Amino acid sequence: MLPRRRLMNVQWRFMRFAVWMCFLSGLAAVFFILSMEDIKLKDFIEKKILGIPYGFLILTTVVLIGAVFGYIFGNLIKKRLEVLVEVILKLERGDLSQRAPELGDDEIGLMAQHVNTMADRIEKQVASLQKLSAEKAEWNEALKESAIHEERQRLARELHDAVSQQLFAISMMSSAVQNTLKTKPNQAAEQIATIARMAGEAQTEMRALLLQLRPVHLEGKGLKEGIEGLLKELDGKQNALTLKWYVDEIEGLSRGVEDHLFRIVQEGLSNALRHARASTVNLRLNRVGDRIHLKIIDDGIGFDINEQKSSSYGLQTIQERVNEIGGVFEIMSIPGKGTQLEVKVPLVQSD
Questions:
Q1: Shortest CA distance to 323 belongs to which of 254, 264, 250?
Q2: For 70-94, how does the pLDDT look when each residue is reduced to its tens digit (9 = 90+)?
Q3: Residue 75 class from Cβ within 10 Å (0-12 exposed, 13-18 middle, 19+ buried)?
């Protein structure tokens, strides 16, 4: 949110402007009185009312009047601007149901009308995106065979680049252990520990790849049922990672949005398995007002967002899928502290 001091500046500027205008007007009035009444400045200054110099009383009075009126009018302008800024910030964060109230007939009121018009247009565009996403899900049925073929090729490359190389390294090191086991038992013990570590990494990589081998679409299941089935299956196949989740039953989602959210969950879990080295992953999917909130949090090694976000294929895929359904994707990660993925998707009614 914008610093409150910036909004207060509007009020104080009105106040300063009013004080200076009243002060200058008071000075002009004093000199006008002196010129019209032919009163000497010294006599005017020495003249007192209730023991207060007449000139000082006039200037003080007009300055106080200017300060009061400047404060009042500045505060009115500031409050209207605060309402407008709050609406704009909520729209920026993906809450497309927000609209500015009637803020008057001046330029601020006109800005509020334009903001509402812009919000209506964005909401319609998001509805169109989600409608196109649903249509795209139907088109994908006809292209499924091609997608399966491409996915097999991608997984084959990943198996060759990761798991196959790890298995080859394990094989080579196992052969070396046979030669050093009798002559250098300490070195052999270190080699065996390295083999065990590499085998664990290969196993984790295989689990992540098997996770991606699951159906890309929900195949007739609801979003809650599909995600919970995915998590239960993954939880039952490994013991090194603790999975915790809460998935709400969300009504009114188009097929395209459900498919994208399911695939985002798959990609997020795969990233946690392959890269995070986490012991616990928490997943939460629920509805908050007119938006869907998805969070995936792990306690893994984390990373520097500026260095790795742009080069991460998985994160790029998630960002593209979120964009297709008009959502907002945010990622927070601290090296050594873990990673949080957060997706917010507006719920809009398409025609």
A1: 264
A2: 777 777 777 888 888 888 888 888 7
A3: middle
| Nearest residue to 266 via CA among 321, 324, 310 | 321
Residues 6+ apart with CB under 8 A from 74: 10, 11, 12, 13, 14, 15
Query: For the chain, which ranges sit under pLDDT 50?
Result: 1-7, 310-311
Contact 225, 265 (CB under 8 A): no
Structure tokens at 322: 């979120």
Closest residue by Cα to residue 301 from 330, 333, 341, 336 = 336
Helix (H, G, I), strand (E, B) or coil at 160: helix
Q: What is the CB neighbour count within 10 angstroms for residue 50?
A: 5
Q: How far is CA 62 from CA 20, 66, 171, 203, 287, in A?
A: 10, 6, 92, 82, 56
Q: What does 71-85 look like in DSSP terms, one character per residue?
A: HHHHHHHHHHHHHHH
The span from the CA of 319 to the CA of 311, in Å, is: 12
Give the pLDDT confidence score for residue 332 in this predicted structure: 92
CATH 1.10.760 fits 143-213, yes or no: no
Task: Return the structure tokens found at 74.
Answer: 């500045």
Report the alpha-carbon distance of residue 238 to residue 342 in Å, rounded: 25
Say if residues 265 and 230 touch (Cβ distance below 8 Å): yes
- Tell me the whole-structure pTM to 2 decimals: 0.53
Identify the CATH homologous superfamily for domain 219-351.
Histidine kinase-like ATPase, C-terminal domain (3.30.565.10)
DSSP secondary structure string for all residues of 166-231: HHHHHHHHHHHHHHHTTT-HHHHHHHHHHHHHHHHHHHHHHHHHHHHTS-SS-TT--HHHHHHHHH
